[in-house]
Amino acid sequence: MLFNTVKPQPRLIGLILLGAAALLASGCRPSGIEELSSNELFTLEFGKMEDQLDLFQIKGELLSTKNRLIMRDGLFYLANGNSSKIMEFSSYGDLIFLLYNSNTNPKPVSFNPDSSADLAATRQAVTYPLMSIGEIAVDSEKHLYVEDAVPEERQVKDKELGVVLNRSVLRFDRHGKLTYFIGQEGMGGTPFPFIDGLYVTEKDELVVICRTSRSWLVFWYSRQGTLLYQVEIDLKNLPLPQKDAIPMVAKIHPDLRQPLLYLMLYYFQNTIDESTKSTSSVKNLPARIYSLALDSGRYGNYLEVPQDGFRKELVGTKQIEVPFPSYELLGVSGGGYFFLLRAEDQNLYQLLILNDKGRIVNRRVMVIEDSELYFKSVRLSSTGIIYALLCQEYGAKILWWRSDKLLREEKE
């Protein structure tokens, strides 16, 4: 999941807010680029109750379990790994549906039929022994796909990959009933290794993207759970812009309309420090986004990501040029537009949108107050809306940026 960040640090909220305001007023914003403003939709409290997010341990330390947010058709699905529960909210923050492990969560109070005569018709809480949930996805019929751990007796040691296969994908219907689980071969198949992402295409086909130290594995299933495509991406045989380039897979996203993958590749070159004769790798080649056809297993065309460039930074009494962080691939919209995001400065990001020919169709700056956050997850919807879960010291908020309107401007 892109831009999932955990950053525990001391809070100096008043000073940080003043600093952020000073930053934006000081001219650090890239000249001539408009801001894409965010809209806060609703907030969540931290805690164990059914409509709260459990993010911290008792001593205030962040947990390493996954927390994932998915937006589909105006609804938000939040998977809370620490509590082993999945909450479905309206865009106003009303809790509509809850799937939870009764051993790790208290009995929902707000779902008590005695509290409202209409609750049974509009809201639902369902128990299921979720163990260690991770990535989630939702299709057009509100089927919920949930990554979860498999019991120890079903785990498999894969000597060839050098990993333990211990993850599966559970499929629930819109009422929270488990219909089947998916493994590598399809329904009831072998468990997966580490799952990097779950995606649902426009045809409601499920895509499972896995990662090991040696390769990436992609499994593409029909809406009935039948395996359609399987590909292993060998890290030693990635496309190169030149022979001495060293590639790194930054992210893989599926095309939502056809059986294609998009690989965001960074490239490094070895350099030798003449004074010490030591070798180091430096990223000084443009990143590329390659397409990979699943029916043939061949790489196709690529888009070259604009160079990151440099910014001036004051070090002591001198201003020096410091390279910008790399663009990251936030996602690919259903219309085939590539959304990339990079940090410009503290709390300031630049959004870059490319079409399928690699042409820049829009740029915007976005304010995300990183310095105030313990946890951040920023995602892209299939329609081109950027949305986020941002967790501060005393609670979390759900917000979005209507970046889909930038695509309408392009089409007009």
Throw out a few tags for this protein:
412 residues; globular; five-stranded antiparallel sheet; mainly beta; 31 strands
Molecular structure report:
By secondary structure, the protein is mainly beta. It has a domain at 1-41 and 49-61 and 325-412. The chain is 6% helix and 48% strand. It has a five-stranded antiparallel beta sheet with strand order 1-29-30-31-2, with no helix packed on it. β21 (278-293) and β22 (298-304) form a beta hairpin. It starts with a strand and ends with a helix. Residues 8-27 have low confidence and may be disordered.
- Give the terminus-to-terminus CA distance: 31 Å
| Spans of at least 5 consecutive residues with low confidence | 8-27
Instruction: Identify the overall geometry.
Output: globular
DSSP, total strands: 31
How do the strands line up in the largest sheet? 1-29-30-31-2
> Helical amount among residues, as a percent range?
under 10%
Main sheet attributes: strand count, strand direction, barrel closure: 5 strands, antiparallel
Q: Radius of gyration in whole Å, from Cα?
A: 22 Å
The assigned structural class equals mainly beta
Overall average residue pLDDT: 85
Strand content: over 45%
